[in-house]
Amino acid sequence: MFQNIVTVQPPPTVWMTKPPNGNALSYLQDLDSLLAKQVVSLTQMITGFDTQIKFGIFNSSGQQVFYAFEESDTCERMCCGKQRGFVLHIVDNTNQEIIRIRRDFKCFSGSCFGWFACCNACIHEVIVESPPGVVIGTVRQKCSFCRPHFDLKDATGNKILSIIGPYCVCDGPYCCCCENKFTLFGSDDVKEIGAIHKKYAGFINEAFTGAELFTVQFPVNMDMKMKAVAIGALFLIDFVYFVHAPTRGGYI
């Protein structure tokens, strides 16, 4: 009776080939968009406890460009949730670390409301390095009252880009019609040059796994270092607005 059972194997992961004679960030040179898809943690689904996040990062052709994984303290994950400090390692298919994103724990950074960002202890911020140990930029929350604002700065602290989010950030299994668009602007906050979208991942994923799905678009000719900083902004936005712990049989 078991002779007709067919086992379907998932398709093998196809990795993007590293451009020849390029530096570590050369993967980003000819890209104008990326898809970041969270890898579901069975432990988190069963226990309801926050685990270290993992993401596959893909280009528009479906090739995997990077793999991102979090390094953080267990106690901070359990007690501090999304305001925890972390180091996010972004590696290629040879396990070479291409980008490192660092965020320090701040006692009062739990709120996502921008008006608290006037105080340094409340500001959401990440530092982006490439290669690890070499700072290429920062993403820093800006004081605001209605919509989320973030400044993207280069290694010298000069503002190069900015991000302005929506008036209302929606999340959950019933938010299929919401557009969580965080618009990427030039330094003048006027010219739209790209965006970070939190995509609806489907009712099952949103309700039971907590798996997130993001896209980021930027000009193809944008400086590769600032593309990496934009990736840092994507993960900071994820932690500020969308990180939560799923529970058994339900959703928080």
UniProtKB/TrEMBL annotation:
SUPFAM superfamilies: Tubby C-terminal domain-like. Its cofactor is Ca(2+). The keyword Nucleotide-binding does not apply. It holds the Pfam family Scramblase. The keyword Transmembrane helix applies. GO terms for cellular component: plasma membrane. Keywords: Calcium, Lipoprotein, Membrane, Palmitate, Transmembrane, Transmembrane helix. GO terms for molecular function: phospholipid scramblase activity. The chain crosses the membrane at residues 228-245. May mediate accelerated ATP-independent bidirectional transbilayer migration of phospholipids upon binding calcium ions that results in a loss of phospholipid asymmetry in the plasma membrane. Belongs to the phospholipid scramblase family. This is Phospholipid scramblase. It comes from Didymodactylos carnosus.
